[in-house]
Every structure is written in C-alpha cells, then in structure tokens.
C-alpha cells in the first residue's frame, strides 16, 4: 500500500487535496478486496492524479476502445473503409454476441456496424471479426506503440483475453497508459477530426456502463465510456465534459476481487464522484 500512496502523491501536487483523494482510493480498494488502479486527467488544466497508475491490469473489453480507434486510423490512412462488409458465419460465434448473432449467414455487417457493436454493446464476435483488419493482437499493440503508449499490449482475442491471471502480462494496460492513449485519440490529433468525433460518438453511445463511471458523474455532463469485465476484473474507462469545459479522462481498473464480488459498479461510480470533486470542486 505504501508504494501506491507514494506513487499517487508523486507528480500530483497540482491536484487539490491529493492526499484526500489517495485516502478515498485506499478505502475503495479495501472495499474491492483486490487491487484498484485509477488515472484521471483534466485535459483543460493538465492536472492529473493516479492510484497504482503504473501497475499492470487486465484490459478485458476496454481493449475494444483501442480496436475501434485503430480501425478509424486505417480509415484516415485510406487502408480501410467503414462501408466494407465482413460476413458472419456460425463458426465465428462465441458467448455474448447480441449484434453479430443476428447476422449469421445473413447480410454481412459493415465495418462501421461492427465497430458500433463492439463499442456500444461490447459484442465479442464483432471485435474478433475486426481484429484481423488491424493486424490481429500484434497489430493492435503496434498501433498503441505509435501513440507513445509503451505498456498496453494485446496478445489474444475474445474470450481468452479475459483470463485475468494475477501477474500475467498478456492483454494488460496500466491506468496511466490508457489515459495517455485516450488523450491522444479523443483530445489530441492522433485521428482526423471526423474520426475523432466518430470514436467519441461510439463512446457516448455505450449501453453497458450506466452503473459504473457514468453513475457517479453529474447527469447534465456529456459522458462516454467503455466497460470491461472478466474473471475477477471489473473495469471502465471514460470521458466526461463538465459543461463547456474540456473533458476529464478517467481509467478505472479493479482486479483480483473475491469470488462473488458484487460491488465493482459502485466502486467505479465512487471513483467518478471523487474525480468530479477533485477537478471541479
């Protein structure tokens, strides 16, 4: 715990009441029964905070945000088209494919439809069908390296990437690395403006995160997020606009929770409440 407190305080002197925020994170981590990792960035002021921000956490389905961004980057470069169609066959089906299962042997979905299903429904088959377009897991890892993210890596596809084995570096990120990539992709110029706005629209349209970060943010804020869950890991990454101000970015990861743990959603909501207080209070 001492390491985490020191890491959270280091380099965060510009965040009001950094010690108080660290105390909140420590309490939330105790509630989780596992490890909590958080990174927050106010993109307007540059103020930031992290808790276990450089520690490794399983991504689970939060990787799908990076996958959709990698597709859009290829569109920007003229190497992909959002109107290209990719067929869905019975052999592609794996658990949780609410969109893809409706297209088996039917009208092939477009790349855009698969991206939307991946981002807003967390459709596992849609994600697997898109991965070859970016060079499979190794290609997605190369994409995040091009953003300056040296920690995030994807090694497998759905569903095996959700194994969440303690100490296993496969399919992991760090909260700070994810916020770095989110900043490059949704605030910076890593994508063309039209692709950046499309990525944001997919985040805002997500239907799986209402009880996580979104639940702890003011109702009048525009909010987007991407969840991830698997084998004791409960995650959410989000972007939130406090009125007309530039957005706040949050990456919140929980892992190694006890069997039957049910409080993950509420902890993410409390992380978001803490971010609201830290950056707008």
From TrEMBL:
Entry keyword Hydrolase: yes
One GO BP: beta-lactam antibiotic catabolic process
A UniProt-annotated Pfam family: Beta-lactamase2
Organism annotation: Skermanella aerolata
Organism lineage string: Bacteria, Pseudomonadati, Pseudomonadota, Alphaproteobacteria, Rhodospirillales
Record key words, sorted: Antibiotic resistance, Hydrolase
Family to which this protein belongs: Belongs to the class-A beta-lactamase family.
A Gene Ontology molecular function term of the record: beta-lactamase activity
Reaction catalysis annotation: a beta-lactam + H2O = a substituted beta-amino acid
E.C. number(s) listed in UniProt: 3.5.2.6
Protein name: Beta-lactamase
InterPro entries, alphabetized: Beta-lactam/transpept-like, Beta-lactam_cat, Beta-lactam_class-A, Beta-lactam_class-A_AS
